[in-house]
Amino acid sequence: ALFGQFTLKHLNLRKQARQLENELDLKLVSFSKLCTSYSSSRDGRRGDSSDTTPLLNNSTQDRMFETMSVEIEQLLAKLTGINDKMAEYTSTPGVTSLNAALMHTLQRHRDILQDYTHEFHKTKSNFLAVREREDLLGSVRKDIESYKSGSGVNNRRTELFLKEHEHLRNSDRLIEDTISIAMATKENMTSQRGMLKSIQSRVNTLANRFPAINSLIQRINLRKRRDSLILGGVIGVCTILLLLYAFH
Question: Its family (predicted)?
Answer without folding.
Answer: Belongs to the GOSR1 family.
